[in-house]
Amino acid sequence: MSTRSGLPFFQELCRASDSGARRGRLLLAHGSVETPCFMPVGTQASVKALSPDDLLSCGAQIILGNTYHLYLRPGHELIGELGGLHKFMGWNGPILTDSGGFQIYSLAQMCRIQEEGAEFRSHIDGSLHRLTPELVVEIQEALGSDIMMPLDVCIPYGASYDEAVNALERTTRWAIRCKNAQKRRELALFAIIQGGMFPELRRRSAQELLALGMDGYAIGGLSVGEPKDVMLQILGEVRPVIPRCYPVYLMGVGTPEDLVDAVDLGVDMFDCVMPTRNARNGKIFTSFGHIVIKNAQYAGDNRPIDEECQCYTCRNFSRAYLRHLFMANELLVYRLLSIHNIYYYQSLMKSMRDAIEADEFQSFKGKFYEKRSVKQ
Ligand SMILES: [Zn+2]
Hints:
Blueprint: E1 3-4, E2 7-8, E3 10-15, E4 22-28, E5 31-35, E6 37-39, E7 41-42, H1 52-57, E8 63-65, H2 67-72, H3 76-81, H4 85-89, E9 95-97, H5 101-106, E10 111-113, E11 118-121, E12 128-131, H6 133-143, E13 147-148, H7 161-181, E14 188-189, E15 191-193, H8 199-210, E16 217-219, H9 228-238, E17 248-250, H10 256-264, E18 269-271, H11 274-280, E19 283-286, E20 289-292, H12 312-316, H13 319-327, H14 332-357, H15 361-373
Parallel strand pairs: 6-18, 7-8, 8-9, 9-13, 13-14, 15-16, 16-17, 17-18
Antiparallel strand pairs: 1-2, 3-4, 4-5, 10-11, 11-12, 19-20
The structure holds zinc ion.
């Protein structure tokens, strides 16, 4: 168990006997988080279409904010002056912020990576910016993030071995600079394991970063276009390298199936835009697979989205009503479908936590897949 300020930061509570799955608890500046957990994505200090009360009623324990977006607009100094991100957005639970690295590579109009940092043009107004490892920590400390991520070097799927080596070496050097820049010790600082699709580089990245004694370890650069079996293979190679005393976070993943498979391999934390983005597109997750609400078959369907779901939407509204709202572009539909999808993800994580505690994880996983294969 790692300790900071006398407070246990991560506790492993129990392990499944037939799986790498485990139950744990994160103790953070704004409260505790039961793991395995899923973090809804609140890019611009808002989980799209949902209020903090909605998130709590869906069972969310911790949310994710995007450093890149908040740095550009409204600016971390302003949020800091106004009392920090929690106060600014009215969410009192834990928050993890990413480093902005992934967004620089994927959203910025121009991106030049040098040893000092990353230079880029804002996707909003084209203005020129430079993020360094030190500035990324300064931004996240101004936001007051319970868990901060260091600036890392992301590479595209299909990158060469040499590119992967260079990226992982710079990622380690930048992690050291981030750790040296940290002033607020009550906030956790994770490291991000890179190494592309090369198992030996993944192990090397993990070992270099473990030597730094960070507060937790994230696995970055997966779910970037590789086949799912490659993702699980890399995960299976790198996960055992990380000692049990550290929380393990698989970044940007994924579908309900991905979550179940990754928990099976011992992952503790997840984030993904999928439940909220899909909700806004009318794609809804259920215990029997996904449904597309605009399909004509739901026009007169008086049933809830999922008979087993206890969310506000399923307790009060029919598929027919939700389809009507969607077809009429009524704003309410974004909230109602987002509530359902986030509730579904949180319920899935709760079911996995219960299954691990009962030491029935493989049985849970078998039933999870069996149910999805049955045509409703
Ligand atoms: Zn529901």
